[in-house]
Amino acid sequence: MARHFPHGTPVAVLTTQPLDRALDYRAPEGGVTEGDFVQVPLGPRLVLGVVWGQAAGDWPVEKLRGIARVLDVPPMAQAMRDFLERAGAYTLTPMVAMLRLAMRAPGLGETPGKRKVYALGTGQPGRATAARDKVLAVLADRPTDVFALSELADLAGVSTGVVKGLIAGGAVLEQNVPRDADYPPLDPARPGKPLAPDQAEAAATLRAAIAGGGYGTTLLKGVTGSGKTEVYLEAVAECLARGRQALVLLPEIALTSEFLTRVEARFGARPAEWHSGVTQAERRRAWARTAAGQARLIVGARSSLFLPFQDLGLIIVDEEHDTSYKQEDGVLYSARDMAVLRASCEGAQVVLASATPSLETWANAEAGKYARVDLTSRFGTAVMPKLSTVDMRSEKVDAGRWISPTLKRAIEQRIIDGEQSLIFLNRRGYAPVTLCRACGQQVACHQCDARMVEHRFQKRLMCHQCGETTPIPPACPSCGVEGKLAPVGPGVERMAEEVSALFPEARMAILSSDLFGSARALKAQVEDIAAGGADIIVGTQLVAKGHNFPKLTLVGVIDADLGLQGSDLRAAERTFQLMRQVSGRAGRAEAPGVALLQTYQPEHPVIRAILSGDEEGFLAEEAAQRRAAGVPPYGRMAGIVISDPDAQVAFDLGNALARAAAVMEDAGAEVYGPAPAPISRIRGRHRVRLLVKAPRQSPIQSALARWVAQVQIPKSTRLSIDIDPQSFL
Ligand code: ADP
Ligand code: ZN
Description:
Elements: E1 4-5, E2 10-15, E3 23-26, E4 32-33, E5 37-42, E6 45-54, E7 69-70, H1 78-91, H2 95-102, E8 114-120, H3 130-141, H4 149-156, H5 160-165, E9 172-178, H6 197-212, E10 216-222, H7 228-241, E11 245-249, H8 256-267, E12 272-274, H9 280-291, E13 297-300, E14 312-318, H10 335-346, E15 349-354, H11 359-366, E16 371-375, E17 386-391, H12 405-417, E18 420-424, E19 433-436, E20 452-455, E21 460-463, E22 469-471, E23 485-488, H13 492-502, E24 508-511, H14 519-530, E25 536-539, E26 552-557, H15 571-583, E27 594-599, H16 605-612, H17 615-629, E28 635-644, H18 647-659, H19 662-666, E29 670-682, E30 685-695, H20 700-709, E31 718-723
This protein binds adenosine-5'-diphosphate and zinc ion.
Adenosine-5'-diphosphate binds at residues 193-196, 199, 222, 224-230, 379, 548.
């Protein structure tokens, strides 16, 4: 039971300000209850916070300032507070940073009422100016969205006056709408598609788990096209029918719109959305209606895990193996693991869905910690694609070209048959390296230890670490010789050029995340492809995720060996997953599919495993190797990255940590490093890494906290701790 604190008693309030602890305040008239959202004075300002419990009591009550206001928002549930505390303790994140994740709703302190929003109108812009065109372009791109005035101006990069100038002629509509309107009700009783017997059995298992109540996690493993989405929507229906809230996490915003359409078909209305493409006004609405328990189904990105659900009954993590579930800056957390943690706090069920589960999840199912449900065949008449390798050692390919004669012939046949082909290369841009033929230097980013990557469509060089771009220079930045810069190696844009040269008549589409200004533009492109608007698709891993292209019957992988290089402990697992996923794009409808993997090492065990399709065998083998090496999921790891503008300062701190490593060794852990990080400089900061390896049962977090507390961190230095690191760069 949440405790109540009467008027005048001291209480602890956690704010989102960068302090290291909760602060004490006096309860206002009427008292406060644990979990209440409040406004409190801090210095000269009022800041937002949450009543976290009894005051620490180290200040005399009469010296405490009073809570200014209790917000008219439902209090944060006990389960949510438990979740934040446990997630903070697991990831070694200060509570204020955890609370910030949970309060990412704009305008929380403002009272609901009417507000002005702006949307696309049908009138004429009057006098056309470049600034006005920018506003109209933003609106045209998102014709059904409404924006706050400042947000629309920001997105268009113009002043608010420009937006206002468009109202008179009716090109922009100004409307007064109620804040935080209810979402339309979803009807879980509407019948879904008739399920195939194996689907029905899987759905029944998931439904029964929800009916049973309480926490549990199930791995839903099913080949691409087996109907996993169809099946987990049944679990959502069960959860909604029981009056509880459900959350569906997707790894990629581009997948949301197709999913929303499916939800609408299934439940008769669209759910709430939460991701970076949602406007501020909609975000606030989603947050507030979730807190009120009115939004019953939320579809979102990983950060939607921190929404204030009142009664969460189910979390679906779709494509659970996807690396984008790991948040790699700010608070470092795995949304998949945090979903399981949140569910255990809430007494909710988790469904982890994938065709190629992560080894972590697979091992948890093997160990009996997770239940497991399998769908082994594609729905209907669709069959799994036939995979084979193209041995590049015996193919004749010209310099500067990458498509083998074998792959070329296969594409030609598809064009004749009116079917689609996908050329897959997991590399953005035109060429990964720009080399000066005069001095032999590669063009590098001036603030990162990284090469500049040519993006020919944008006519710029880009650093994939810091995002910095520069025009393609006419002369070599190192030696100054003109006209000698040359692209080396293929990127997806260069593949597009090769496709155009080989198949000048074919219609081509390129799918790469950097080529789309907005999620909507990408969505339009995806829909066009699905409708048959392209003969050849050239794409990065963006296409490997979930899209349905019914006419696609051939997948050609340009470089199947790409991910096998490097020493990442998950290199084999990731390559296996990516190759299986991208191959799975082929032959999803009536026509059977083929995948051709271009490789220089067709006898490599991972390539052989990909071809055999024996996932269980591959995972068991991979598990045996990891177990022998004592690495995740059979051992624990933590990465420590120290960065500073001065390399010596970063190293000094790393060495100081290494000298104090006894506390880690006492906890059974081994410490490696400090060593320069593989990417030794990003945004002008030098990076030094340490790696902690420990047995599975080791109390690694408490030891890490004590360890790091022993060193003095200079003001200019950043130290981040990554529990269960996915990236070792
Ligand atoms: P997965 O998520 O496993 O890749 P989906 O749920 O997207 O599979 O299903 C693949 C395709 O098959 C989709 O177009 C889906 O609508 C269709 N499908 C799956 N199950 C059924 C069913 N029981 N009835 C009709 N269509 C189905
Ligand atoms: Zn850079």
